[in-house]
Each structure stands twice: as structure tokens, then as C-alpha cells.
Amino acid sequence: MIKRIAVIGTGVIGVGWIIRFLAHNKKVIAYDKNLKLEKKIIKEIKKSRPHIKKLFNKKKINLNNFKFV
């Protein structure tokens, strides 16, 4: 079973994958050459929380499973 995922690029599609993987309790390591995007990504993840139950039938996202490099 896959437990860790790497996402390269954190544009709209990359963030969507990050949210999906976190919703399924995977550990996600995201890479982007623009280090300033980390705060924006975390903001987007938090913004998606109310929709997680509807989209993935999951209760929450664990931000401890997210790492930005």
C-alpha cells in the first residue's frame, strides 16, 4: 500500500492532488522551486476542509502529513 506521495509543482493541479492525497491520509511531500508558495498551499488546504466530506467522504485533513520542500 502506498503511504507516501511526492508532488512536484504546486499550481492549481498540484494543490488539488495534495488535498486529495491528504484526505486519504497519505503523507505528502510537495516540491516547488518557489519557496514562498508554502503559506499559500497551506491556506488552500485549510480552505478546502469544509468540502472534504462531500468530495471524498472523509472527515478531515491532517496537516501533519504535509511537508513542503
Provide a descriptive summary of the structure in words.
With 69 residues, this protein is an alpha/beta fold. Helix content is 46%, strand content 19%. The chain has helices at 12-23, 37-56, and strands at 4-8, 27-31, 66-68. It has a three-stranded parallel beta sheet, covered by helices on one side. It is globular and about 35 Å long. The termini are far apart. The model has no long low-confidence stretch (mean pLDDT 92).
- Stretches with pLDDT under 50, minimum 5 residues: none
Number of strands: 3
- DSSP strand content: 15-25%
Provide mean pLDDT, rounded: 92
Tell me the number of helical segments per DSSP (H or I, 4 or more residues long). 2
Query: Helicity, in percent?
Result: 40-55%
Calculate Rg over CA atoms: 11 Å
N to C succession of SSEs: EHEHE
Instruction: Characterize the biggest β-sheet.
Output: 3 strands, parallel
Distance between the termini: 24 Å
Q: Structural class, from secondary structure content?
A: alpha/beta
Query: Looking across the biggest beta sheet, what order are the strands in?
Result: 1-2-3
Which overall shape is indicated by the principal axes computed on the Cα atoms? globular
